[in-house]
Amino acid sequence: MARKPKINVADELVAAVAEAAAIVRGEADAARVHLAPDVPDVRAIREKMGLTREAFAERFGLRVAALRDWEQGLRRPDPAARTLLKVIAAEPDAVVRALAA
Known about the structure:
Layout (H helix, E strand, L loop, with lengths): L8 H16 L17 H7 L4 H8 L3 H8 L7 H12 L1 H9 L1
C-alpha cells in the first residue's frame, strides 16, 4: 500500500494567502459555490400552491423562520426536510392526510 505524501501545512497556508491576494487584486477568480441539484426550490413549491409562508408552514408542520431562511438562501433544508419538500411538491394532499392521521 502506497503512503500518502505528507502535507506541509505551512506551504498550504502560504499558497492559500497568495490565492486570496490574487483574487482581491482581480488577477484570479474566486471559487464558485453550487447548490446540490437535489435542493428543491422552496418558494416555487409554496407559490405554486398559492400559500403564504405562514399557511404553508402550518399546513406541513414547518417553522416559518426555517421556511423564510430556505427561501432567502440563508440556509439549506437538511436531508429530511429536502425529502419532505420533494414529497410536498409531488403529492401535497398525501402529506396533509398523513399529518392529519
